[in-house]
Amino acid sequence: QVQLVESGGGLVQAGGSLRLSCVASGRTFSNYAVGWFRQAPGKEREFVAGISWSGGSTYYADSVKGRFTVARDNAKNSVYLQMNSLKPEDTAVYHCAINGDPFSRVALKDYEYDYWGQGTQVTVSS
């Protein structure tokens, strides 16, 4: 089992920044790719960003490229999502997730992930 806990969400004005954190426990965190997803009210959950188990590869949705940066610190069992130039359309609950297969690629579909955090709310006002 893996437990994931997100934090760092909040209310911010458009153009502002937030840094989300995802802390894992229960497995050798450094062996697993991690994805960030978000879900806005009335919308399907969507992939935002992902990072490989080594941290050497990162992936972003087109909607956040150039504004969001994903990074990890395996010594702290943590993954971060730095969000800059936030827009009202970024408003959503953000979740981190882990694919249960060690050393696997970063998956872009939510059904490929086995473990999820409870999420943290990000609200961007115009």
Overall geometry: globular
Average pLDDT number: 95
Spatial separation of the terminal alpha carbons: 40 Å
The amount of beta strand, in percent, is over 45%
Rg, nearest Å: 13 Å
Describe the main β-sheet briefly.
7 strands, mixed
One letter per element, helices H and strands E, the order comes to EEEEEEEEEEE
**Number of distinct beta strands:** 11
Number of helices: 0
Low-confidence stretches: none
Helicity, in percent? under 10%
The structure class reads mainly beta
Describe this structure in words.
Helices cover 0% and strands 47% of the residues. It is mainly beta and 126 residues long. The radius of gyration is 13 Å and the shape is globular. The mean pLDDT is 95.
How do the helices and strands line up, and which of them pair or pack?
Blueprint lengths: L2 E5 L2 E4 L4 E8 L8 E6 L6 E6 L6 E3 L7 E6 L4 E6 L8 E7 L16 E2 L3 E6 L1
Parallel strand pairs: 2-11
Antiparallel strand pairs: 1-3, 3-8, 4-5, 4-9, 5-6, 7-8, 9-10, 9-11
Summary?
This protein has 126 residues and is mainly beta.
Core attributes:
126 residues, 4-stranded antiparallel β-sheet, globular, 11 strands
